[in-house]
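Lab channel / #folding
Pinned by the channel admin:
"Please post every new chain as: sequence first, then the structure tokens as a reply. Keep commentary short and put observations after the output so the thread stays searchable."

First post following the new format, from NK:
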Amino acid sequence: MSKTGLTVKALMEALDGAVHGLVAAPRGLGALVRTVVVAGEGVPVPAASLVVVPAGGSAPAARAGLRGASAVAALGDDAAGLRDLGLPVLSVEPSVGPEEFAVLARSVLEAEETESRHGDLFSLARTVATLTGGLVSIEDAGGQVLAYSASDEGADELRRQTILGRGCPESFLAHMREWGVNERLWAGEVVEVAERPDLGAARRLVVGVRAGERALGTIWVQVGDRPLAPASVQVLHGAARLAAVHVMRANSGARSTGRDTEELSVGLLTGAFDTDALARHLGADPSTPVAVVALALRGPEADLPWRLDQAAEITSVYAAAYRREALVIPACGLLYVLLPATTGRSPAAWAGELVSVLRDNLGTPVQAAVAGTAPRMRAVPSLKKVASRTLDVVADRPERRVTEFDEVRSSVVLRDLFDTLADMPRLRDDRLDALDGEQRRSLSAYLDAFGDVTAAAGRLHVHPNTLRHRVRRICALTGLDLDDADQRLLAAITLRA
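Reply from TO:
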């Protein structure tokens, strides 16, 4: 059934609602399960199988031939009677029953096998579920399920039938055709499908997945136990554009993976390759002006890779909704977004909305920097540096959600200057090395206030006469002439570098 399989532990976690408890696990839960069989006389038990024992099946006949099994599952008392098998024994929820439990377990294994082929789609389904608050499934043009979000809390009968049967019931597809939903989908709409209790269907949103005029499938969001997020329609538009890429890649058997694409995309940021050719390979027009946005996730470094992956998924959906050819590129611990520049909402406004979504869903401070617009793709590397520098400047000001380069241009340029000076120690006033910490702070405040002693003393919380005395002492100690504009400028740079 599944070439790779799941461990007994992973299978139990996936079947959480249907597993009543664990009766025995004498050798742990690490054995692989690749298939599911229902026990009975004459039923062979393949290696690496989960054996589901029917009601009353603790009799010797049901226990025979279990040597190659990885685990056993049975109803309450029946499960207790199997604890001496030397295998993990799962107790099945009585309301589910052993036959339905076997169907559910097979569905989980089939989903695992499907996810190995459509991993990007499963990840996309989870992200759409997070952003909309609904239950998501992605289907091909024939109604067969390609991927779905894991949670079934609040799932209606239609979703259960669709997931278990690996496809939308034909009866519901027929109603879709009658209601004219298909025509609206292929016209590019996100269609609201009203609740139909007689069909076991809660309210839904659905969008078509297309490549040009070719229908590739649909993305469904069922309303569960809470209302859908206000931005759900926007999310679905972006998700449909991303899903089209994943479906076409899977259908073509292409070996290119998301990681391959990431590695190629980094070339656009570094300029180390033929930028125009690389852009065309990634589906972007190299001659189109491109806005460059960078995102930084602040917080503990330990879980940064995981949070960065989550942020990349969310950002990809929002970027695809904003600009069809947008590229999201993780690099150097940041996320870079290349947005084809067109009229409409500004990149800064879009970035502000995205930062709010990321902060809400990741629970961590996120900051964005809008570096500007590159006139064509080959100018992106220089703006990439500007974006990362802008984020450096505002790192200690988490209240700043979105910063445009022009707002901090002077600070960014000065940082570059100080980095250069750090490698050239002769380009500084070494007379100031004789000053202690208090004297350096006093001179910095005096210079920053353009010689206004009262203002500088106020910042230092000292009396103006105290500051005047310190400045005279500094000049006597170092030989600094504060009436000389060049000396003042060099002193200010030296104190900041």
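NK: The two ends are 65 Å apart (CA to CA).
TO: also worth noting, The first strand starts at residue 6 and ends at 7.
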